[in-house]
Amino acid sequence: MMVKKIDLPALDLWIAGLIEQYETIGVQANADDFIFATLKRASDLRLDYDVTILPPKMLFQPQWEELLTYTETEGYQSVIDSTPFVIVGVHPYDLVAISQMDEIFYQNNPDLRYCSRRENATIVAVDVQNISPNTFAGFMGTAYVTEGYDILLTRIGEHYLVDAATEKGHAILGSVAQADDAVDADLDRRRKVWEDNNKRLRRRELRADPSTWGKLLDESYEHPVWDEKARLCFSCGSCTLVCPTCYCFDIRDDVGWDLRRAQRSRVWDGCMLRDFTAVAGGLNFRKDVVARYRHRYYRKGKYVPDRIGGRIACIGCGRCITACVANIANPVEIFNRLAEDRSWKKR
What we know:
The chain is of the alpha+beta class. It contains 12 helices and 14 strands. The protein has helices spanning 8-21, 92-106, 112-119, 137-140, 167-171, 184-200, 213-218, 225-230, 238-241, 289-307, 319-323, 331-340, and strands spanning 2-7, 23-30, 33-38, 64-71, 75-78, 85-90, 121-126, 151-156, 159-164, 180-181, 249-255, 261-268, 278-279, 283-284. The strands form 3 sheets. Strands 3-2-6-7-8-9-1-10 form an 8-stranded mixed beta sheet, sandwiched between helices. Strands 5-4-12-11 form a 4-stranded antiparallel beta sheet, with no helix packed on it.
């Protein structure tokens, strides 16, 4: 581990160097929100953001991507993006989500396109400075991390600590490699940032221990909360599309009218969308809104954890709460209700 200490002008100089040498994607302001986008200049980078609209999963599993092309003359050509790039400004909770996606996409038959992007990415994480109003990451154990990044930035006063944890991280240090080493007092201040963030990232009060979510769901398949909330649901899918741990997709084939060219692509899909479970013969095994609404929570608290060693498929970022116009997508509200309402079976 190499931890350096730099001031704000040195940080800008380093980011400018990254932009010159690599495809560099960072968090930037977009009206009143924040997004991951290609950096053109260091001054556009906003490490003080609260939360981005879409998570960085969009950089590993794009909203739309070409899988293969076909032409009559050249036949089939697979398309795999292997461009190296640097991501600057990933929050700890999103790092946890990326590590979960790694488990999913590397399991069994590894997804070559995801793996290629992941292996060509260098992740520069940053500890949270400003708190999103809907976050509950402190309850989920994702307010800070000590692994999973190539470089971790932590602001302490008018300086940043730059923690290069991997070979890829060391490779992009550039001018930072010549900076002063952090001393014990600096590392103590970083630990204080982590402790404070674990307390501060609790804007939504979760009273149901995440380790109990699977058991709660086992006992609550017929709970009335599913119908109550589903009646208000528009099935717009916003909650799943902004979720860092949702990874479902649809495959589409577009064939030219002359049948001499074609393209296969995949696009984001989600279990809250009406046609997600539509199959041949006009059948749909989750056609009712309540079935889709309930499935979303079972996926987070039971189905995915069963697949990846008990890790809850929720990182507490609060994006789903913000995105839901019907105000029914809040996992905190649902799991608190399941934990505290034990009388429903007696009604």
